[in-house]
Amino acid sequence: MMKDTEIIMKYLKSTISACLLVLLLGMSVEAQITQKAEIGKFAITNATIYTVTNGVIENGTVLIENEQIVEVGNDVDIPSEYEQIDASGKQVYPGFFDAGTQLGLQEIGAVAVTNDQAELGDFNPHVRAFTAINPSSASIPVTRVNGVTHVISMPVSGRLAGKATLIDLYGYSPDSMAVTPNAGVHLNWPTSKKGGWWDDRTDEEVDKEYKEDLKKLNDFISRAQFYNKMMTDFENNPSNKEQPDMNKKMQAMREVVKGEIPVIISVDAKSDILNVIDWTKDYPDMQFVLAGVRDGWRVADEIAEAGLPCLVSTLYTPERDYDNYQRPYQNPAKLHAAGVKVAIATGGVENVRNAPYHAGFAASYGLGKQEALNAITINAAEIFGVDDKLGSIEEGKQANLFIADGDPFEPMNHITDVFIRGHKIPMVSRHIQLYQQYLDRGAKTN
User: Fold this and answer.
1) Domain match, 358 and 417 both
2) Known InterPro entries for this protein (predicted)?
């Protein structure tokens, strides 16, 4: 009886805590966004426009009508109904694209009820990040006012964690935010290395476990390939056969094994990267993208030869004690120099706002500004097959862009205006509110 009472009290406490948390989050969001985004017809004039794909336009104009860019260039006729935004002395860039986050899936790491980026089990291709996105996440306005207008958000647990989604950082529901609901499936590669000094397994035990994990992965994909063939045969000749039983995990794998969406493989160590390269050769019909790739600079030529694009960050410590401190910053440049298509992916939640500075470090350590700009715009769009919509400032593309008073890779410069899907976004976030609140606290001076 006593044990039952304790269980009930524990449940009540957790429920009350969850309710209070939801209430506080709701109050925070309501206080955070006091303005509505505007949509209509806008003309950004007198700007230096970094189109990414068509060079830099000095003293140029961008016309935005509803969700699209309708004209870009010099000598643009501006109809009277367009609201003009004078960007003299300022720069216009395509909205930045963080190609690997958990944004919208996690709010407070220590509070379980606010986290939806992990699932039980090792193989969950049917789990979709799209269905779990929280449009009211406090981290979203913090991110978008820093120029990041769209991201890949992905589940992270287990071996095959689930399907990532590509979302705009504006909207009132996952449907209104989604660019590509299913953008790829996330695979955590089984490592063939020890976890660290604390790992007391023998080399034989490590190798055995790796081979067992790899066999499970291969078996799962083999079943998915068989299931896809079986279902395809039935769909092509339904009258001649009995309909096979539906399996939601195998059904979710069909677009993966057919190569319609990529497998995003998180892998870091040199030996593991080489293992991944060999493994992908067994599945020529599937698409693959590497993520993390911290040792990528060590095997850049091999990655390039395999034709595998990489999603990388720069703000982490070197993999080995004897590595030069510059290696994380140099990794994107060395991969690019070998011929690898590189895109920026922070892997974060609240610090996705720092994506421009990941690109800035890469630019300063060998990648150069233009290639760093490509890495956080058009390259990511090409990798995920949305370069017809995003990644550059071109007529007919979705109006995801921002205006800055200087180089957005430098933290001292400011972003003054952000457009997402043609909506002029309020430049308000929790961080800005706190900054304004504590900037002048009325402190007495002697």
Assistant:
1) no
2) Amidohydro-rel, Metal-dep_hydrolase_composite, Metal_Hydrolase, Metallo-dep_Hydrolase
Count of H helices and E strands in the chain? 12, 16
Edge-to-edge strands of the sheet including 178-188? 96-101, 148-153, 160-168, 178-188, 262-267, 287-292, 310-312, 342-344
DSSP 217: H
* Domain-located, residue 10: no
CA distances from 241 to 223, 238, 244 (A): 20, 6, 9
Q: Is residue 235 part of a domain?
A: yes
Half-sphere exposure of 296 (CA within 13 A, CB side): 34
Specify the pairing of strand 310-312 against strand 287-292.
Answer: parallel
**103 touches 140 (CB < 8 A):** yes
What is the extent of the structural domain holding 196?
A: 96-388
> What are the average pLDDT values for consecutive 10-residue runs of the chain, which has 446 residues?
49 49 45 74 97 97 97 95 96 98 84 73 93 92 95 94 96 95 96 83 88 96 96 86 87 96 97 97 97 97 98 92 94 98 94 96 97 98 97 98 96 95 92 82 65
Pairing of strands 262-267, 287-292: parallel
